[in-house]
Amino acid sequence: MAKTGPLGKAESFYVEEKFKIGISIEEIAKDLDRAVGAIEKHIKKNKIEKPKTIMEQQFARQGGATIMTENASSMIDKAKKPSVNNSHCITKIK
Fold first, then answer.
1. Which residues of the chain have pLDDT under 50?
2. What CA–CA distances, in Å, run from 8 to 43, 46, 63, 84?
């Protein structure tokens, strides 16, 4: 039987942090022995943002500016497709 009543401070913190890292609402409700509707209501009431992708999590935000971290740069470099062979565009000096 699921618990009833408002979420406590510890439960609220648990819901917010787990939802931010991408844990599903159903799994959070199961962990806390709460109804799924109560978890959804808490998320909507507190306007908790949906989880970001791993790439979005690697950018630092400071006062309106977005800064690419070293880890984000490495991830982007790995995700790039190799460029086309442009050897016909290179001039060799004799």
1. none
2. 14, 14, 32, 57
Please work out, in degrees rounded to the nearest 5, the angle formed at the alpha carbon of residue 5 by the alpha carbons of 3 and 7.
Answer: 85
Tokens encoding 12? 């609220």
Type of residue at 40: E
Rounded CA-CA distance 7/70 in Å is 39
User: Which candidate, 44, 45, 26, 22, places its Cα nearest to that of 35?
Assistant: 26
Distance CA 15, CA 37 (A): 13
What phi and psi, each to the nearest 5 degrees, are found at residue 67? -120, 130
Beta bridge partners of 68: 59
Closest CA to 28 of 87, 37, 60: 37
pLDDT in tens, 20-39: 777 888 998 898 888 888 88
